[in-house]
Model the fold of this input.
Amino acid sequence: MTTGMSTADDAVASSFTELWGRLVAGLIGWCGDWDLAEECAQEAFAAAVVVWERDGTPSSPLGWLTTVARNRARDRFRRRTTEAAKLALAGPDLGMDAGTEADPPSYDEIPDDRLRLIFTCCHPALPMPARVALTLRTLCGLSSSEIARAFLVTESAMDKRLVRARAKIKHAGIPYRVPPAELWPERVGGVLAVLYLMFNEGYAASSGESVLRVDVSAEAIRLTRSLVELLPGEDEVGALLALMLLTDARRSARVRNGRVVPLGEQDRTRWNQESIAAGAALLEGHEPPWGPYAVQARVALCHDAAATPDETDWEAIAGLYTFLPATPVTELNRAVAVSMTAGPRVALDLIEPLAAELADYYLYDATRADFETRLGLLDEAAGSLRRAIELASTGAERRLLRERLEALSAH
Amino acid sequence: VKYLLLHAVDESANANTESSAAQVALDAWIDEMTARGIVLEGARLHPVSDATTVTARDGQPVVLDGPFAETKEQIAGYDVIDCADRDEAVAVAAAHPTSYVGGIEVRPFAPGMPDPEVPDTVAAGKRRYLMLVCADMRRAMAAAREQDATRNNPTPDDEGDEGGADIDAWVDSVAGTRLYGWPLEFPDQAVTVRRVDGKVVTTDGPFAETKEQIAGYDLLECDDLDHAIHAARTHPVAGGGVLEVRPLWG
Done:
């Protein structure tokens, strides 16, 4: 939304992320048609902008939106009478004769169908990029252009990806449900991967000028919390929630004046101790072997537990990274920890072999520049920073890198 | 002798070329071949973007998006035909409109196949899926060629006693879900029919060279995709081959 919004616009905007997922999930459960659910949800929000301005925000916004969206769906059925019979066969009774609902259901009366929705969005029969895109679209209400920017593809390519994914759900008969218990172990892993991507999307906002997308991170945390309640025996679900909370704890210190503040320079008094305590509590009592989320959460806790950067237990962090599969990004992170104990020369040698594989990853060049600066290789460091600036995808990241570059030339 | 016709068409090239004329030609072929008692069963399939495969990685079953093999042409439909001999089967395939836009693989079924009995209408609340059973059969084919003189046609029981027992147990476990299914002869028994400048051209072998080859199929009637995936991952081939589950059109 643009500037100069009215209060009703504000009310609609603030409830959008919060309510979109629940509205769409409920509508799909009600009518069984993803396209129709999304179209009618969109129309309900459009109507809310007008009506809430005139009549004030209703006491149950979700109930209001649900009622309006259902009525729109019924209108469409009436207009397309020939198709109505077909749809009635395919889906549940939509209460065609009920007319309009006099009393909108209250928030608590509408079942939270988001878990059904996320298990369906994360179904293994869908390609991974489509799972992420569908979850961001249907659960978080991100537009396809926002998702397209996040994944560096064109909007038309993203539209096509979403259309194809919805077509597969419909044609291949991917069920809209929380899977039965025997399928949980494998399906949960897929859901966690999507949730973590979504959290990072919200946290790092690799897609735009605004660095923090609080609502997307919060939505990821909320969905993960629901999963913890549903799957109390799955350690990795709790570990992912811990990782999110321990990362999210630094949120308000991570950006200052539109600039990303590196971990070592953050005002640690602004870290959220409540989130850190909650994250630490989730990790307590779980012995190795740890899954990837448990390891990453413990790394985050090593940082969060240090009152000053000097107190960081870098040896513990370097040791934790060896628990993870040795991917180039893991090796890069481990090298940062190694540089703090064994020095930047050893670390630079560690990341040298990763150059080709991480050629498009700005943090490779940014990390390299840091090692080179510490070794006094200032010309090399400036070259690495220039490459990093070219590769960085947000303005805030580029600003930080440019500042470092200016500081270098001042030497 | 029963043959399977596999219609292979390049989806990307033919996405927008479906014409009413082609539909008329297809209807005419179906009407004629049904009247002559040649076509026993057949269906159009959803595109490969709606396909799901079940295979094994590191001994664990995995579910993936997409077909069993990336090929230039994709299977768009199939027909089961009953013909006097291979020449007649090729002529029946050449008369099919697919021959103008793609290839038709003509492959004999293993002997002893009963007539497939498939209800015209799908049971309420159910969906139909074609499950292609694929495996790397080059070794088996080479072995079969070596002992060509003594070779018998493969039937489910020829896969060794253990394999046969596994298949029987699987068939029992999917009773009520599986409408029918039968193994095919090896791919080296296939002939692919196309038209070049309107003229019928036949080539030996399947419609595409792939790592795994289609060994047979089962027609399933399931509640949803998870149900079909369950049938596929419990199939004895899932541990060493690939099963593609593709929804039928309509």
About this structure: The longest helix of chain A spans residues 7-31. The interface with chain B takes residues 123-127, 130, 164, 167-168, 171-175, 179, 183 of chain A (CB under 8 Å).
